[in-house]
Amino acid sequence: MQGVPAGSPTPTPASRRDWPLWEVFVRGRRGLAHSHVGSLHAPDATMALRNARDLYTRRQEGVSLWVVPAAAITASSPDERDPFFDPAADKAYRHPTFYDVPAGVEHL
Length: 108
Description:
The chain is of the alpha+beta class. The protein has 3 helices and 3 strands, in the order αββαβα. It has a 3-stranded antiparallel beta sheet, with helices on one face. The longest helix has 12 residues. The protein starts with 12 loop residues before the first helix and ends in a 19-residue tail after the last helix. The model has no long low-confidence stretch (mean pLDDT about 80).
């Protein structure tokens, strides 16, 4: 098995379930942002990168991969959406909705 040192026992399905979860991000072309494409279990970052390459870029869709331990990600809670994002709602000046755009101005 790839990634297992010679002489080591082959991991059992039970021990594979204990491998950490990794979130996978792929950048499709140069200049674009990485996008989350899925998750996988792997024993370490090197194996997570290899498995992500094999699983998520089989048709050469990517030029760059990121794997991040899922345990290292901190996320806001959907249940707290309103109070968490409420401070942004009072900044009307961030959106050009209360003034007219002059004629001839493109791509605003």
